């Protein structure tokens, strides 16, 4: 049987999404149900998807499996960047304890590291993106 998100919740989310603020869009996942999803996009502020049954949970990767895969990925990125240090005198690329630091001198520093509890790889950048007149961040 299909479950539906309550109409009042949709109206509330639609009002929040119409402001196109980051706060409003980040509130949308709270409307998700175990067998449905609420999505926002530029063309349509609110779309819903319903599933007839709950989606099975993805298999969990063990901490050791994740650390091995993350380190392999970070080493691959480091290998891909080989040669940059010869091209830019001020550059320095280092990998240590799950953290890949890419310092490109005046061009900025990037840090890519593993987040074991979340099973994610995070990337910090010297580049930031500001809001455009429409309220979207690019």
Automatic annotation (TrEMBL):
<dbReference type="GO" id="GO:0034986">
    <property type="term" value="F:iron chaperone activity"/>
</dbReference>
<dbReference type="InterPro" id="IPR002908">
    <property type="entry name" value="Frataxin/CyaY"/>
</dbReference>
<keyword id="KW-0408">Iron</keyword>
<keyword id="KW-0406">Ion transport</keyword>
<dbReference type="GO" id="GO:0005739">
    <property type="term" value="C:mitochondrion"/>
</dbReference>
<dbReference type="InterPro" id="IPR020895">
    <property type="entry name" value="Frataxin_CS"/>
</dbReference>
<dbReference type="GO" id="GO:0051537">
    <property type="term" value="F:2 iron, 2 sulfur cluster binding"/>
</dbReference>
<dbReference type="GO" id="GO:0006879">
    <property type="term" value="P:intracellular iron ion homeostasis"/>
</dbReference>
<dbReference type="GO" id="GO:0004322">
    <property type="term" value="F:ferroxidase activity"/>
</dbReference>
<dbReference type="Pfam" id="PF01491">
    <property type="entry name" value="Frataxin_Cyay"/>
</dbReference>
<dbReference type="GO" id="GO:0008198">
    <property type="term" value="F:ferrous iron binding"/>
</dbReference>
<comment type="similarity">
    <text>Belongs to the frataxin family.</text>
</comment>
<dbReference type="GO" id="GO:0016226">
    <property type="term" value="P:iron-sulfur cluster assembly"/>
</dbReference>
<dbReference type="GO" id="GO:0006826">
    <property type="term" value="P:iron ion transport"/>
</dbReference>
<protein>
    <recommendedName>
        <fullName>Ferroxidase</fullName>
    </recommendedName>
</protein>
<keyword id="KW-0813">Transport</keyword>
<keyword id="KW-0410">Iron transport</keyword>
<dbReference type="InterPro" id="IPR036524">
    <property type="entry name" value="Frataxin/CyaY_sf"/>
</dbReference>
<dbReference type="GO" id="GO:0008199">
    <property type="term" value="F:ferric iron binding"/>
</dbReference>
């Amino acid at each position: 049987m299909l479950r539906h998100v309550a109409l009042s919740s949709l109206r509330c989310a639609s009002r929040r999404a119409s402001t196109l603020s980051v706060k409003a869009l980040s509130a949308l996942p709270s409307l998700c149900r175990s067998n449905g999803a609420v999505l926002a996009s530029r063309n349509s502020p609110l779309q819903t998807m319903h599933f007839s049954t709950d989606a099975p949970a993805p298999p969990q990767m063990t901490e050791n499996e994740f650390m091995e895969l993350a380190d392999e990925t970070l080493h691959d990125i480091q290998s891909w960047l080989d040669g940059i240090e010869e091209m830019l005198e001020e550059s320095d690329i280092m990998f240590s304890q799950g953290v890949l630091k890419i310092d490109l001198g005046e061009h900025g520093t990037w840090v890519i590291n593993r987040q074991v509890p979340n099973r994610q790889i995070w990337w910090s950048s010297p580049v930031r993106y500001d809001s455009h007149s429409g309220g979207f961040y690019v």
